């Protein structure tokens, strides 16, 4: 193309036809631009040249399957009935623009500090038992947690702040721990750093459960009544959600994140974190890691029923042995919680 490049074309397509599924086929030399496009949600995924035609056909098929999954009629009806659909917070848009313009940490801090609830949330994350710090300023927290996690905290806070229930705070702490375990699995077990564009997938994976607490009080009461207010394994909870809603919290969370324009790997992790062997999954590694981190996080805090069995096929799919996996997880628990009551 003479006048614009492929990424500028993607920007135009997203602007004029936002529902079009966008996939990039690119040379490896363009890796930085591709990752940037993924984080900005200009593309759903990418393949580097040379690509395999059968893989490309399979990916296109999986994308259509995913779209069909989120077009669940019950799901659409519930969202349409909402008087005020949760929207991307203005501050999230502002922070994104500031990051794009390479604004200073001081200016980003000042913008965040205009929202007291958000500032408190960020400081609580930075000083939580799962990070173990003594941080007194939002700027320090931003530098320690990282901007991608800050953006996810902004998004999740827009839902959490509508709900003061203790259960919502339990879900927040669970999301925080899941995110940390996911990063640990990548760094210490898979021996590489989690990609920045989905480094906060753990923070957002259970946003559907918070959405149910905040916006569907009557239906949530029906689910809790079926559970008899007792902690149960996650499979039973999703089964009851299906009986009440016609879908579960994973689909609800995925729909919201997709509607918000969150990078596709994060959306996919939210949708499939209870079903990591689903044949429709494209980002298998990330979904598998979030699945494992989610179960381990509940096991550590004991807020859900202990004893949910990890499917060893998921561990094998990551190319590691179960012995190595559990050895490293035991090391994580000992190092993080040796002096706590957990």
- Give the number of helices: 19
CATH C-level of the largest domain:
Mainly Alpha
Mean pLDDT: 83
Major β-sheet, in short? Answer: 2 strands, parallel
Number of domains: 2
Q: Find the CATH topology of the largest domain.
A: Hypothetical protein af1432
Radius of gyration: 20 Å
Categorize the overall geometry: globular
Q: Encode the helix/strand succession as letters.
A: HEHEHHHHHHHHHHHHHHHHH
Secondary structure: number of strands: 2
Main structural class: mainly alpha
Content of β-strand: under 5%
State the share of residues found in helices, binned by percent: 55-70%
| Order of strands across the main sheet | 1-2
> For this structure, what is the CATH homologous superfamily of the largest domain?
Hypothetical protein af1432
The CATH architecture of the largest domain comes to: Orthogonal Bundle
The stretches of 5 or more residues where confidence is low (pLDDT under 50) are none
Distance between the termini: 59 Å
Q: How would you concisely characterize the structure shown here?
A:
This protein has 342 residues and is mainly α.
